[in-house]
Design a protein that fits this description.
This protein has 188 residues and is α+β, with helices and mostly antiparallel strands. The chain contains six helices and eight strands; from the N terminus they run H-H-E-E-E-E-E-H-H-H-H-E-E-E. The strands form two sheets. The chain has a five-stranded antiparallel beta sheet, covered by helices on one side. A three-stranded antiparallel beta sheet has the order 6-7-8. About 10% of the residues have low confidence.
Length: 188
């Protein structure tokens, strides 16, 4: 399962999105919805209250929380699965906050790389080529201090990165593979 940024999902998902995803039939008054809880099936037409910007509360179950907790409660699934459902809904809706890079694996965001760093040039990459290929120096994160080279699936989806300090140190099984393009080192 890919990494899920709960904070980002909550920031980019409204309760209206969650209500729509769940197919709840609730009465709306301003920024608040009320209705029966389809899970608890007790408490009447006001058992479930959802207030945009605040949260939800189910009086029958005495549970409340954010959008993710609402989906988890109504679907009776773990919170992580609920977050994944909301994240997938956002991607289908086209409101994903991921960068508009062609073909990325869901949940994997392209790294913020410096394509003109001295380490990139020392490996023999022209900054313009490095930028076009998505190669660059990682100044922070798990790849910090390395030149990150993207690995793409045959479909073009970003599958991950390989961090290198010396181009000849790539794994031997990668030598001769057509998708790894060797670049000659620049000579002065």
């Amino acid at each position: 399962m890919p990494y899920l940024d709960f904070t980002e999902i909550k920031r980019t998902t409204t309760f209206a999105d969650a209500v729509s995803l769940l197919g709840l039939t609730l009465k709306q008054h301003s920024n608040q919805w009320r209705g029966p809880c389809p899970v608890c099936q007790s408490g009447g037409d006001r058992a479930l209250v959802i207030t945009e910007g605040k949260g939800f509360y189910c009086f029958a179950a005495q549970k409340g929380g954010d959008q993710i907790a609402l989906v988890a409660h109504i679907k009776d699934i773990p919170v992580k699965e609920a977050a994944e459902l909301l994240a997938n809904k956002l991607e289908r809706k086209g409101t994903s906050t991921a960068e508009p890079v062609t073909g990325t694996v869901p949940g994997l965001k392209p790294l913020d790389l410096d394509h003109e760093h001295d380490a990139v040039i020392a490996l023999g990459f022209d900054p313009a080529d490095a930028q076009q290929l998505g190669i660059g120096y990682a100044g922070k994160g798990i790849m910090r201090g390395l030149v990150a080279i993207p690995i793409r699936l045959p479909s073009g989806e970003l599958a991950g990165y390989v961090g290198v300090t010396d181009i000849s140190k790539l794994p031997p099984r990668w030598h001769g593979i057509n998708s790894v393009v060797p670049f000659p080192k620049k000579t002065a």
